[in-house]
Specification:
Blueprint (H helix, E strand, L loop, with lengths): L3 H7 L13 H11 L11 E5 L13 E7 L4 H18 L13 H7 L6 E2 L3 E3 L9 H9 L8 H4 E3 L15 H8 L10 E6 L2 E6 L12 H19 L4 E4 L12 E8 L2
Parallel strand pairs: 5-6
Antiparallel strand pairs: 1-2, 2-3, 2-4, 6-7, 7-9, 8-9
């Protein structure tokens, strides 16, 4: 994938497709890319194309992609990271996607995925070419979650503690990796990520929203996986060498944000 900033800025959730099937070339490229997808937790994830499926909030395609993995610690973060890699690659091919975790017949999709008792399928996405115009329903859904609205850089990024916002000007070479996190998609656009930069390390925290409780499938930890994906891929593209670690710095936080993981700058 090239130009993460461009992909992130241009990509949007697509629920209205133009009815065309994916070309054989695009499907071949997508399937080849799936074989390369990894995640920083090293957890295996199995992707599967699902034809002839449907969802009440999607029109114009019957092709979906799902992914499943064994129930294990960090499954949600790993899933979010890996599935977002797929989403961004699809965007580079001009293929539309939308994260779907609830508005679907979960039983039907889990059956199509051949899910076993010890496996989890957190989300799926339709695949297709975006229609030239969004449906009225799609426009209303985007308006309802303020899909194009984002917190400011200073609202999600901090310096040494949660008491001191980090400005975009002061972020230096970390600006673009963090900016692509700021622009990332999240469940009903809650944008739960917070980043504290300390001693060359970016510590990622989950600021949980009301009505989003943790569980086997934790949509906001999936969102954190998306954030980690954006940060790491953008840093790599910018020539910034980082190391993924889980080392809780125990930074005091009045809002009880939950530590997720960190990226250390390599010198």
């Amino acid at each position: 994938m090239d130009n993460m900033e461009k992909l992130v800025c241009e990509r949007r959730s697509v629920r209205t497709f133009d009815g065309r099937e994916l070309t054989a070339d695009d499907k071949e490229k997508l399937c080849a890319f799936i074989e390369t997808i990894d995640n920083p937790y090293g957890l295996p994830i199995e992707f599967k194309l699902l034809p002839k499926m449907g969802c009440p909030v999607v029109a114009g395609t019957e092709l979906y992609i799902g992914a499943k993995m064994k129930d294990s610690p960090h499954l949600n973060e790993a899933f979010g990271y890996a599935f977002e890699k797929l989403v961004l690659y699809a965007q580079s091919l001009g293929i539309g996607t939308v994260w779907i975790g609830g508005t679907m017949d979960r039983g039907a999709f889990e059956k199509a995925m051949e899910l076993s008792e010890d496996e989890v399928m957190p989300c799926v996405s339709p695949l297709g070419y975006p229609a030239k115009k969004m449906s009225v329903r799609e426009k209303m859904m985007r308006k309802g979650v303020k899909a194009d609205s984002r917190f400011s850089f200073e609202e999600i990024t901090f310096w040494n503690s949660f008491d001191t916002p980090l400005t975009s000007d002061a972020a230096g070479k970390l600006f673009l990796p963090i900016e692509t996190v700021r622009l990332a998609p999240s469940a009903v656009n809650k944008q739960p990520w917070r980043i504290v930069v300390m001693d060359g390390t970016s510590h990622f925290y989950l600021q949980r929203s009301r009505n989003f409780n943790g569980g086997r499938i934790d949509m906001q930890k999936i969102d954190m996986g998306i954030a980690l994906c954006h940060f790491e891929l953008t840093a790599k593209e910018q020539g910034i060498s980082t190391e993924f670690v889980i080392e809780n710095p125990n930074i005091p936080c009045k809002t009880e944000a939950e530590y997720i993981a960190s990226y250390k700058l390599k010198i």
